[in-house]
Amino acid sequence: MIPQPLQQLIEELCRFPGVGPKTAQRMAFFILSRPRKEAVSLARALVGAKDNLRFCTLCGSLTEADPCAYCTDSRRDRHTICVVQEARDLFAMERTGQYRGLYHVLHGALSPLDGVGPEELRIPDLAKRISEGQVKEIIIATNPNVEGEATAAYIARLCKPLKVKVTRIAFGLPVGGDLEYADDLTLGRALEGRQDM
Amino acid sequence: MSRYLKDEALVLKSYPLGESDRLITFLSWNRGKIVAVAKGARKTKSKLASGVDLFTHGNYQFYQGRGLALVTGVEVKDRFIYLRQDPELYPYGFYLVELADRLVPESGLCPEVCSLVLEGWRLLPEVENLPLLIRAFELKLLQSTGYSPFFEGCLQCGASQATVFSVSRGGLICPECSNERGFKVDFLLQPGTIALARVLLRLPLGRVQVVRSRHKQEQELARVTGSFLRYHLQIGPMNSLKYIDSLTR
Ligand SMILES: [Zn+2]
Ligand SMILES: [Zn+2]
Fold first, then answer.
1. Would you state the pLDDT for residue A153?
2. Distance of CA B14 to the CA centre of its chain
3. Which residues contact B238 (CB under 8 A, 6 or more apart)?
4. Domain containing A122 — which CATH number?
5. Minimal-distance CA residue of chain B relative to A174
């Protein structure tokens, strides 16, 4: 018989992506084996992140202040917007150290099977940002798989009448993988070698 | 019991799994649906990644251990690039997938369905009338899985003058039989719609371009196949169809 508090901890840990009951149990026993202050600090970090982070209303990235640090940084190039699927892809682009423009996080990709259309993503917000007139180039950095490519194609078509240059990161990114797994060097080269859509 | 399998298959669905894997649903020619894990397929250096992407047709190798099967190798035959490049074709490619996925039972075997989906993906960039291709696909798919609706005359007496479509009976009923037996009249079809359904059922899918039809007939047929799928196969509103509607609105 597993004590109830332990059972509850395991169930909560099971919610994490990629964590099954076995891993959850290992994690639970690890937490229990550590000093109380570590558990408290973990719990505080969970609640703190949830309470203090929100999505930037302009670009959709995770932020404490709205608008976010990227959107308000006057040193960043305001004529370029890099479109990514998820906030973690934004961090991947930042790690390359080669991008100095603004971002737009879609929070997903077009997926007819899962009922995710343009309205479910932040695509209308992107169109609005472009129509405000400052933007000269849209760099589409969605995943190099079917859903990412289809989303890129949709955005490229949407941008056509808006008179803005649309490019797609390409070079060296093999088909099928996820952007977040590309190493910094490859992603940097892909950014450099972006092609017109 | 563990064993190695080889099969020709189409990628129907692909979802991220765990740290860097993908969970793939295949529709295979010889074994029906196969659900298998493609280990590391989200990593950019993965040799499997491009072979297990959506809309891929290939020869696959699997290893069936005690748990979920693993994809161990792939030789890609076609990847239908236009389905990802053309925002209009994209949801249609998925509609074929969604319907096939829901029509083929988990342990069922339907090589004809594989061939129909493959043919459909090939036809999508060539066909001008996409809604008509979809109607043809629905009818051929129902036919190949043994659920074909009957449009050749009255189901009850064989009379050729039948225009009432009964969804529960799965076909046409003539006015006399309909009055006599009190069948529920689900649809009163135009002769042109009946003729269209007959032609689509008789012709192979690949000949759909030679068929001429009116928009009204296609719409009427869409309502018939829609309620037929709902009633007989409990296939409700489909996400990809809603997506298509939202784009064309
Ligand atoms: Zn922002
Ligand atoms: Zn009759």
1. 95
2. 17
3. B95, B98, B99, B102
4. 3.40.1360.10
5. B44
pLDDT score, position B104? 87
Same domain assignment for residues A28 and A122: no
Domain holding A30, by residue range, is: 4-52
Cα A76 to averaged position of ligand 1 atoms, centre (Å): 12
pLDDT at B158: 87
What digits encode the pLDDT tens for the residues B65-91?
A: 888 999 999 999 999 999 999 999 999
Interface test with A, best of B68, B84, B247, B248 (most A CBs within 10 A): B84
Calculate mean pLDDT across residues B40-60.
Answer: 91
What's the mean pLDDT in B172-182? Answer: 84
Q: Mark whether A141 and A48 lie in a shared domain.
A: no
Shortest Cα–Cα distance, A16 to chain B (Å): 10
**Is residue B183's pLDDT more than 80?**
no
Is A57 within a domain?
Answer: no
How close is the Cα of B85 to the center of ligand 1, in Å? 29
**Pick among 1.10.10.10, 3.90.190.20, 1.20.1440.120, 3.40.50.1000: CATH of B85-248:** 1.20.1440.120
Which listed ligand is nearest to B154 at the C-alpha?
Answer: 2
pLDDT value for A172? 66
Tokens for A114? 């899962």
The size of the A-B interface in CB pairs under 8 A is 91
Q: Which of A112, A146, A186 is nearest residue B53 as measured by Cβ atoms? A: A146
Rounded to an integer, the average pLDDT of B43-54 is 88
Which amino acid is residue B217, in one-letter code?
Q
> Nearest-CA residue of chain B relative to A18?
B18
Tell me: do A35 and A91 sit in the same domain: no
Distance A52 CA to ligand 1 centre (A): 15
Looking at residue A160, its pLDDT comes to 87
Phi, psi for B57 (deg, rounded to 5): -115, 125
CB atoms near residue A99 (< 10 Å): 21
Q: Where are the beta strands (DSSP E) in B18-121?
A: 21-28, 32-38, 57-64, 69-78
How many Å is the Cα radius of gyration of chain B? Answer: 20
Mean pLDDT by 10 residues, chain A (197 residues): 91 87 92 94 93 93 93 95 95 92 96 92 93 92 93 93 90 75 81 84
Backbone angles phi, psi at B37, to 5 degrees: -95, 130
Residues A118 and A140 in one domain: yes
Q: State the total domains in chain A.
A: 2
